[in-house]
Amino acid sequence: MAAVHAWRAARVTPLGELHSPPRMTAELLRMTVQVVLVASLWRGLYAASGTTAGLDRDQAVTYAVLATLALRVRNLDQFAGRDTVIQHMHFGTIVYWYLRPLAPQRYYALRALGEQLYGLVWALAGYAVCLAAGVVQPPKSAAVAGVFVLSALLGQWVMYYVMLVIDQLCFWTLRNGAAMLILIFAQNLLSGVYAPLWFFPDWFITMSGFLPFQATLSVPLSLYVGRIPLSDAGAQLLVQAAWVVALALFTRLLWRRAARRVISQGG
Amino acid sequence: MSGSIQVRGLSRTFHTTVRRPGLAGALKSLIKPDRVAKEAVVDVSFDVAPGELLALLGPNGAGKSTTIKMLTGILTPTAGEARVAGVVPYEERERNARNIGAVFGQRTQLWWDLPVRESFAILRDIYEVPNAEHRARLGEFDDLLELSSFWDTRVRHLSLGQRVRCDLAAALLHDPQVVFLDEPTIGMDVVVKEQVREFLRHQVEERGRTVLLTTHDMTEVERLAERVVLINHGRLVLDGTLDEIRRKFGSTWQVRATLADPHARVEPLEGISLLRREGPQVVFGPDGPTAPTVHQALKQVIERYEVTDIAIDEADLEDVMRTAYVQAEAASSAQAEVPSGAPAGGD
Ligand SMILES: Nc1ncnc2c1ncn2[C@@H]1O[C@H](COP(=O)(O)OP(=O)(O)O)[C@@H](O)[C@H]1O
Ligand SMILES: [Mg+2]
Predict the structure, then answer these.
(1) What pLDDT score does B72 carry?
(2) Closest Cβ–Cβ partner in A83, A102, A266 for B66
(3) In a domain, B112, yes or no
(4) Do B266 and B295 belong to one domain?
(5) In this protein, which residues make up the domain named ABC transporter (chain B) (predicted)?
(6) What is the ipTM of this complex?
(7) What is the 3-state secondary structure (H, E, C) of chain A?
(8) What CATH code is carried by the domain that includes residue B139?
(9) Quick check: is B126 in a domain?
């Protein structure tokens, strides 16, 4: 199958980055600054009060720093490579996606996989440094670590689909900038990057339960810091898996419609 | 299998919504959009034999790109049928993709952030080209297009001429039988254009590829194509060899005169039309079946105008095509007038 032979498409993002050292330096700087800021912010907040929303200082700092690191996984400069759907629609180069014996959805998935693996290397490096420096705590047990890894993988999978939906919007509207900003904001807020979700009022938590964003970061990180006990992990993993399935079906539908649209407009 | 192209009654109508001006108009468009139909390609039929290079010509907006898009499978026709190497492209897009290569001028399929060679490698994988074959073909392309001097450069840093050469190579790496080139040489300098022509000639003559090319560069047409298909307003105007076109659209000669008075009034003479005028420079050509010979024309021009310099030569293809376009235009507007002139109702 072409998708297997075309694994090299997964190298596009990492190679592009490796060919631009300034971008990597900037990435390193951005990550360092964010981690330092987030860590000192939460330490400062906890200096006044003890335990808030059932979480002590180290747990909160760990959560926030891990969220910052995890976001790097899929938060590179997507536009640098001119290989986003919006750019292909803009430049008219989307036609080439439909001119190859590799389905656009397969190509997209390979590209995203490479991008996420590359981002993962960054996140893991950052994690190792933070762990060594004592900024984040190690997981409480091997079981917690195992469940976390599983949940984080599912979370990334959900993240992939969320990004995909945003990208797919571009097949219908050339200006998805606003949608992108709203979605990125919603994603950051609801997946617990700005502040862990338990700090929000109940109605907000309930509402966000209907959106996929909790499944991306909030669940795996809550498992990691112990806010969600291991006994509840199974249910949470199931919810994440359900999101994966639902979004997989939905995006499949969108791919089909996108193809129909391209084929009816000629790119 | 044979890399032939068959096009039968191919048509494509686009439906677009026109936006009304103003806020009220925008609201009205939202509620009841104004749909207009645009016939981009109308009942076009032609064939391209395996190993033939055909130039598809026509003014801007004639429907050339639309035709090519249907033949590459990224656009479905509203009527008619096309077969490319035996495959109906818009029905079996992926199968068709293996048989064809395409370059849409100005749009690159290369990966912007990567060295060109990486793009080649990605395409090799996508098309599942064996390694040895890939290397051999790259070597062949390098000999003709001199790619190796810049193929380690990232695409974003290439000049237009370099990039288009790479795009051509990229489109042919999987050894397609049929190649579609939509204005590939647009905006390139003469040297690169010549190199690309040489490359295309090699691909047609030595490799037996079928090429369908659109271009506005008549030198290119003259050097590459034996046959041309001319379309205008989506309709096929002419399908023939360059010789036929020259014969049909008259201009087998030109008289170029430099007038003593650059502002003199110049009018067509009996059987002689004015092709071009740039200040004191005027170019005449034959007009219709009653056109005089070039020597009679020369005499007439000298008798009529005060000229400081005069020369004769065969018309270049540019002028022939201009004549062809103008005549096609006249023919189609004459056609369009028939219904309005005819009495309404009875038939
Ligand atoms: N997707 C589209 N929607 C509406 N009209 C289109 C579309 N694509 C092309 N057209 C129209 O069809 C006509 C033919 O276009 P095209 O095939 O690009 O011409 P050419 O390549 O010969 O310059 C033009 O009038 C163009 O505006
Ligand atoms: Mg065009």
Answers:
(1) 96
(2) A266
(3) yes
(4) yes
(5) 25-258
(6) 0.88
(7) CHHHHHHHHHHHHHHHHHCCHHHHHHHHHHHHHHHHHHHHHHHHHHHHCCCECCECHHHHHHHHHHHHHHHHCCCCCCCCCCCCHHHHHHHCCHHHHCCCCCCHHHHHHHHHHHHHHHHHHHHHHHHHHHHHHCCCCCCCCHHHHHHHHHHHHHHHHHHHHHHHHHHHHCCCCCCCHHHHHHHHHHHHHHCCCCCCHHHCCHHHHHHHCCCCHHHHHHHHHHHHHCCCCHHHHHHHHHHHHHHHHHHHHHHHHHHHHHHHHHHHHCC
(8) 3.40.50.300
(9) yes
Q: Is B158 in the same domain as B299?
A: no
Instruction: Count up the domains in chain B and report the number.
Output: 2
- Which range scores top for mean pLDDT: A157-171, B135-149, B238-252? B135-149
Chain B positions in Cβ-Cβ contact with residue A10 (cut-off 8 Å): none
Report the nearest atom of ligand 1 relative to the CA of B41.
Answer: 14
Which residue puts its alpha carbon closest to atom 11 of ligand 1?
Answer: B40
Least CB–CB distance from B122: residue in A8, A98, A266: A8
Q: Is the pLDDT of residue B342 over 60?
A: no
Statement to judge: residues B130 and B201 lie in one domain: yes
Chain A hits for B108, Cβ within 8 Å: 93
**Is pTM beyond 0.90 here?**
no
Domain boundaries in chain A? 2-259
Considering only CB atoms, which chain B residues are within 8 Å of A5? 125-126, 128
Ligand nearest to the CA of B69: 1
Confidence category of residue A76, pLDDT binned at 50, 70, 90: low
One domain for residues B51 and B185: yes
Centre of ligand 1 from the C-alpha of residue A170, in Å: 21
**Residue numbers of the domain that contains B123:** 5-9+47-247
